[in-house]
Amino acid sequence: MKVSLEELKRFLTEQFPQGEAFGTLQALGDGWAEMRQEVDASHLRPGGTVSGPTMMALADVAMYAALLSRIGLVPLAVTTNLNINFLRKPVAHAAIRARAKLLKVGRTMGVGEVFVYSEGMEEPVAHATLTYSIPPEKYR
């Protein structure tokens, strides 16, 4: 693991301050990360369910954290693809959490998956796969 939980939290606060709106980093390991998002009325869509964009943002930032755990603090690593399947309705007003895991990391790309859970439910509410572009060494 190239970065600690505290180092990554500090980095995200300094380099990605808007990221706090997309959840908080809870745990970090080599190639994985866990995040949590409190859910309030601003995260709900008509019908009383957590909005897709809320779950997508949490999945994206969780994968960014997982990737940085492996490659170090590289601010210019960016999402090139995000595919998400919504599996079941989350509990309204219950926090959601994401567990991201890297599947493969090369010199220029990282691929991983994220399961999103609604607190109080055992089964995932969404599953996402993401690809990140990793900038060349000279741009890090």
UniProtKB/TrEMBL annotation:
InterPro entries on file: HotDog_dom_sf (IPR029069), PAAI_dom (IPR003736), Thioestr_dom (IPR006683)
Signal peptide positions (record): none
GO molecular function, one term: acyl-CoA hydrolase activity
Chain ranges of the Thioesterase domain: 47-123
SUPFAM superfamilies: Thioesterase/thiol ester dehydrase-isomerase
Keywords: Hydrolase
Domain of life: Bacteria
Protein name: Phenylacetic acid degradation protein
